[in-house]
Amino acid sequence: MSDAPNGGAPQNGATADRVLRIGTRGSELATTQAGHVRDALIAAGYPAELTIIRTEGDVNMAPVERIGVGVFTHALRDALANDRCDVAVHSYKDLPTAQDERFAPIATPEREYPFDVLVSSGDTPFAELGAGARVGTSAPRRRAQLAALRPDIDLVPLRGNIETRMGFVTSGELDAVVLAGAGLARTGRLAKASQKFTAEQMLPAPAQGALAVEARADDAYAAAAVAALDHAESTLAVTAERRVLAVLEAGCTAPVGAIAQLDGGELHLEAVVASVAGTKVLRESASAVIGDDAAADGALGAARELGETVANALLAGGAAEVVAVANGTADERVPLAPEIPPEQGGQPGAEPGGEKPG
Ligand SMILES: NCc1[nH]cc(CCC(=O)O)c1CC(=O)O
């Protein structure tokens, strides 16, 4: 073998002992997610290991609305493009909707629990929190839907990893926090949820609970490896949901929620756009016939079209204005979270900036 990386490798990039380097952020959630991907790759016959990539969002505690969306995924994609890893694992909901031609088609392993949950002091249900109760979340989508349900609660901006955010409830600083159920489920904490929000109460971020696994477009071996992890039903659902975001030209901090579920050969999509104050709530839904085979030719196109149908119905109801207003009124209050960057006092691998806007 020559000294060049992959020197003498066959066309598809395989070498006899090639180990795929899976790039991941360093948080407990990120490494747990990437660990599942590593195990799945190994099970599919592709040796793999994790490599931690530090991102700007992990060291900068400014609100994500200010430091910009995509800080969590850009650094990982740069590492992948620059051959510092061979595979990148993202929380799908944090990825911009624009396709990135540097990478092979995104693979989506089977999705985890997609809805949001409440973690509250004394396991108090959301409806029974007292007037003025302090509920932590930064995501405009969550703020908007929570404010629509309970205009009398006090929504407190909050970032930080799962442990940090739940810690504000334990310490009594907050009465409750709202988190993605998937984050709790993947780290073995779903039993700590006081309540699971229903689709009627709160729609999740498009692609919440799903992973996006990428490889370089020119690395045929890694691309084939990640393609082996794709779960057709999960891919259909996230395709429909993210199409709504793309048509609305809204980013991952937009007050847009969506869930698509396959049931008896039909893909059902429901989406919401809400003003951050919760005073305007637009909701639309539609279904598309997929048939028995989620991987069939045409299924992805049907999912995309379904997303467009629902997005266009939202636009007809005035969604463009709600999204535009939300973009101009990002919350500037300082989030409740430790100000100490991880290299000065944080635990190794811990990320104060664990909550992206959700
Ligand atoms: N917003 C940041 C983020 N990105 C992915 C998850 C959780 C896992 C997932 O949704 O797949 C979270 C935390 C949260 O929203 O509570």
Q: What topology does this entry show?
A:
Elements: E1 20-24, H1 28-43, E2 48-52, H2 56-59, H3 64-67, H4 71-81, E3 87-91, E4 116-120, E5 134-136, H5 140-149, E6 154-156, H6 162-170, E7 176-180, H7 181-186, E8 195-196, E9 211-215, H8 220-227, H9 232-247, E10 256-263, E11 266-274, E12 281-289, H10 299-316, H11 319-328
Parallel strand pairs: 1-2, 1-3, 5-6, 5-7
Antiparallel strand pairs: 3-9, 4-7, 4-8, 10-11, 11-12
Helix pairs in contact: 9-10
This protein binds the ligand NCc1[nH]cc(CCC(=O)O)c1CC(=O)O.
Ligand PBG binds next to strand 7 and helix 7.
Function: Tetrapolymerization of the monopyrrole PBG into the hydroxymethylbilane pre-uroporphyrinogen in several discrete steps.
Cofactor: dipyrromethane
Organism: Dietzia timorensis
Report on this model:
By secondary structure, this protein is an alpha/beta fold. It has 3 domains: 17-109 and 211-230, Periplasmic binding protein-like II (D-Maltodextrin-Binding Protein, domain 2, 3-Layer(aba) Sandwich); 116-196, D-Maltodextrin-Binding Protein, domain 2 (3-Layer(aba) Sandwich); 231-332, Double Stranded RNA Binding Domain (2-Layer Sandwich). The chain is 31% helix and 18% strand. The chain contains 11 helices and 12 strands. It has helices spanning 28-43, 56-59, 64-67, 71-81, 140-149, 162-170, 181-186, 220-227, 232-247, 299-316, 319-328, and strands at residues 20-24, 48-52, 87-91, 116-120, 134-136, 154-156, 176-180, 195-196, 211-215, 256-263, 266-274, 281-289. The protein has a 5-stranded mixed beta sheet with strand order 6-5-7-4-8, sandwiched between helices. β1, α1 and β2 (48-52) form a beta-alpha-beta unit. The longest helix is centred in the C-terminal third of the chain and has 18 residues, at 299-316. It is globular, with a radius of gyration of 20 Å. Ligand PBG binds next to β7 and α7.
